[in-house]
Amino acid sequence: MVTHVLFETSSGYALFERVESDEIGQETDAFQAALQDLSKFGKIIKLKSFSPFKSAVDALENANDVSEGVVNPSLKAFLELNLPKKKAVLGVQEKNLAGAIKAELGVECASSDLVQEIQRAIRLHAAKVLKPLKEGDLERAQLGLGHSYSRAKLKFNVHRSDNMIIQAIGMLDQLDKDINTFAMRVREWYSWHFPELVKIVNDNEMYARVTKFIKNKADLADEQLPALADLVGDEAKAQQILDAARASMGTDISEIDLLNIETFADRVISLMDYRKNLYAYLTSKMHIVAPNLSALIGEVVGARLISHAGSLTNLSKYPASTVQILGAEKALFRALKTRGNTPKYGLLYHSSFIGKAAQKNKGRISRFLANKCSIASRIDCFAEGGVNTFGEAMRAQVEERLAFYEQGTVPRKNADVMSAATAQAAEDAAAAEAAQPSEEAPAPKKRDADAMDVDEAEEPKKESKKSKKAKKSKSAAMDVDEEPKKEKKESKKSKKSKKE
């Protein structure tokens, strides 16, 4: 029979004692009505002790321990102080926590339906039953703890940055379409005034910049030839543009029309510049989130795979056969419906390896590449370290397989390549950890428990060194008269060190 009930709140731990034992009639309507009525419920359960949390940090720590089924030291001390040692049966809502309390304190615990009903009734009457709390304290504590607990659960994780990659690659594809459409509009618009420029300048970005530079073709003079040559990058092409402007068959243009064309060309150029910055951002993000996949197949194709799968975690769970045809679902289902040949590749078609392979080997290299992409995505998702060693090794394997298909060169064994990559990855990770403190300025921050355990032996030495330095600084400040002597001694020591 349950004699006591542990109730965890956002403000602290509460221990209730059962006064009456209605365990036999717990399913009757009278018992349920008694739980709903505060006056009757007060005769069944009474508050024995309440231990409030010291701070919001303490509340968050205890909430995390309760959710993980761990007995916090404060909870252990609270139960040891208030719970009778003999014939006590503690009712706990969380089954994992009940098992941990039983293992830690040796107290019999229960999580039956009766305990759940009592816990529900306590939660219903908590504002009035928990007398140490004032009105509104419990709601404010619940709000604050809810925010901090959710923030701790949803803390930054590198694997969640794949959402930024999905948005970036989507924006990049949209920009490519828009820039192409707008560049064609600039060409068509300005061609009414200078139609010969389209055949001379083929690049869209260069065409927009030249349009902005020339403006009215009638005003283009020989003095502008050096600046035009710097813009185009070719003096002969600049001279060709100048000659074409003098003999152009285009119509004249008004100032207002020219102003609109120039404004639109400015927008196109700004979009192109933003596209370059976005590509650089995507590249850096892929090197952080999926370094091995980027090294293997490239940043853009890797980002498209992650975007199509929905996340890096989803991509890592896909088998190699699914990765191979990812992006060709319509062709796959059409082939299955018509009982035709299934597609050999989907998004992997944009990889440089598929383009290098001969027509008869495209399917084989696609299957091999999908296998390596699946391994690389799993390493990026679940391994720690953030190095691209495995991606570089697998890229070399794909190139060796291409050479094997074309020339017959026997590639290295996979076990040898992976063992060498594992050793190299360990060295790279160690080098990155060693270089990290020197690169970053030391900032005062709370260390983890593991770091504190490791550095315990080093702390006394550091403290002694700091105390010695402090004493030296104090003595230097006090003994002003002895400074010349110290300077002489230091100069002698420096001379001795130079001789050595």
UniProtKB/TrEMBL annotation:
SUPFAM superfamilies, A to Z: Nop domain
Domain of life: Eukaryota
GO terms for biological process, alphabetical: ribosome biogenesis
Compositionally biased intervals (Basic residues): 463-474, 491-500
Cell location: Nucleus, Nucleolus
Main location group: nucleus
Biased composition (Low complexity): 419-441
Molecular-function GO terms, alphabetical: snoRNA binding
Region (Disordered) residue spans: 419-500
Domain Nop: 289-407
InterPro entries: Nop56/Nop58 (IPR045056), NOP58/56_N (IPR012974), Nop_C (IPR042239), Nop_dom (IPR002687), Nop_dom_sf (IPR036070), NOSIC (IPR012976)
GO cellular component term of the entry, any: small-subunit processome
Record key words, sorted: Nucleus, Ribosome biogenesis
Annotated coiled-coil segments of the chain: none
Protein's job: Required for 60S ribosomal subunit synthesis.
Family classification: Belongs to the NOP5/NOP56 family.
Protein name as annotated: Nucleolar protein 56
Species the sequence originates in: Allomyces macrogynus (strain ATCC 38327)
